Amino acid sequence: MRGLCWPVLLLLLQPWETQLQSAGPRCHTGPLDLVFVIDSSRSVRPFEFETMRQFLVGLVRGLNVGPNATRVGVIQYSSQVQSVFPLGAFSRSEDMERAIRDLVPLAQGTMTGLAIQYAMNVAFSVAEGARPPEERVPRVAVIVTDGRPQDRVAEVAAQARARGIEIYAVGVQRADVGSLRAMASPPLDEHVFLVESFDLIQEFGLQFQGRLCAIDLCAEGTHGCEHHCVNSPGSYFCRCQVGFVLQQDQRSCRAIDYCSFGNHSCQHECVSTLGGPRCHCREGHDLQPDGRSCQVRDLCNGVDHGCEFQCVSKGLSFRCLCPEGRQLQADGKSCSRCREGHVDLVLLIDGSKSVRPQNFELVKRFVNQIVDFLDVSPEGTRVGLVQFSSRVRTEFPLGRYGTAAEVKQAVLAVEYMERGTMTGLALRHMVEHSFSEAQGARPRALNVPRVGLVFTDGRSQDDISVWAARAKEEGIVMYAVGVGKAVEAELREIASEPAELHVSYAPDFGTMTHLLENLKGSICPEEGISAGTELRSPCECESLVEFQGRTLGALENLTRNLAQLTARLEDLENHLANQK
């Protein structure tokens, strides 16, 4: 490192006017972190300080400064230490000159040891602009003083040298030689300089110019280094970039194979990068947070699969499935609709204040997604909607709308009620009114399944047990959908058995759409919701016999009623005739 700083010392001792006039090639310093430690105590007279200021300006002009070349910092000291500008402040000599010309001396004591400690701990820190130690950029401190230190310097200077800082001690006039030798790096005859006055400090540079100027062998372009060339005294050496190692020829570089060390712990593959080993997973697998293990990729969670009912990952792809009784369509994603099903479906939606308006809109969208997979028609599925809070309101009964489009439009027009959560009252309303023939429900004799779906986000404020049990006694197949703070025990009490097939839950309104998968596979009668109820086709023989029996019975009643009406008419005619 010592030899790398000889060109710097040349510039230190050479007047800037002479540098501009000197003939021949300029001395190159190469990458270097250089900090000037300037004594500005009261013993330095104003004109002497001005001479030192001009000296520093000349030095800066002669340096090859830049982020990748020489970085310069300046600190001054007396009884305290002041940073004029740190290593990372400027990359142009013009900016450095301007800061030096604005420098105002401190004019107090001479605490040289304190200044060395500041340089070691602060000025040469990475935070101040010094390059990290692993880059092996030389660190040089040039101390210029004119007197005896008022504190100890030997111990702190030894610590600085131990940290790799090369120290030059330049004494002017009244400087103490013993202190200079205690501060400087060995060999002392190359690092300690003493001049009689500030006026002679520039002549000192001229005197040693020929001896100290080193030839920049790297600049000649014949070094053959693949990456970087670094000057050394009378020679040079090659250095590789981070992540590479120098080959036996001491010129070419090879990328370090970190994986060959055998300690990467990668489950699948190890890939060497400039920053070290990186684990890589085979196709169809994802790297886990530990950075080493791999897991088979679940394509159903990682892509927009578009499956209507269920997505199943299979190797490097996925496939869509439909519930039992429904066929996968030609697009490979959608399922056949519930065309053969006949259902009377009443939805009870929670409109309490805890739902909030924006979430209520999500609930309406959720209801319309259920309608989308039903065959809504007077002969197929009929849909009714009831909203409840502190009271109950029928939004539209079972018999009002005959198409899915009409139902969906009506759902979107529903207004949010707010207030409380009277789920028990809503169940009673459903049992007593919603499934009545007056509201559009089909007669029980037709064995059309009756399905109730309760949607709620919290605990009921009234008792639900009586009317939940009554609904099931009336043959209504009950589903309970809970969101957020819905109570599981209440959901299970509302739902039909088994609860696992009739209770659904989502942690929040934004994630409840996944519940559609379960409901799509359940509401169609052929998929199991009408367990215990038999839905017979009107074209089957037994249904024809039943229909014939009901028709004959109705005709007999009509015949009896007609006979009674005829008898009354005859009595009326006789009565009128007698009055005449």
UniProtKB/TrEMBL annotation:
UniProt KW ATP-binding keyword: no
Cross-referenced InterPro entries: ECM_Assembly_Org, EGF, EGF-like_Ca-bd_dom, Matrilin_CC_sf, Matrilin_CC_trimer, NOTCH1_EGF-like, VWF_A, vWFA_dom_sf
UniProt GO MF annotations: calcium ion binding
Keyword Zinc-finger listed: no
One Gene Ontology cellular component: extracellular region
Region forming the signal peptide: 1-18
Matching Pfam families: EGF_CA, FXa_inhibition, Matrilin_ccoil, VWA
CDD domains: vWA_Matrilin (cd01475)
Chief location of this protein within or outside the cell: secreted
SUPFAM superfamilies for this protein: Chicken cartilage matrix protein, EGF/Laminin, vWA-like
Protein localization: Secreted
Keywords, sorted A to Z: Coiled coil, Disulfide bond, EGF-like domain, Glycoprotein, Repeat, Secreted, Signal
Subunit structure: Interacts with COMP.
Function: Major component of the extracellular matrix of cartilage.
Protein name, entry field: Matrilin-4
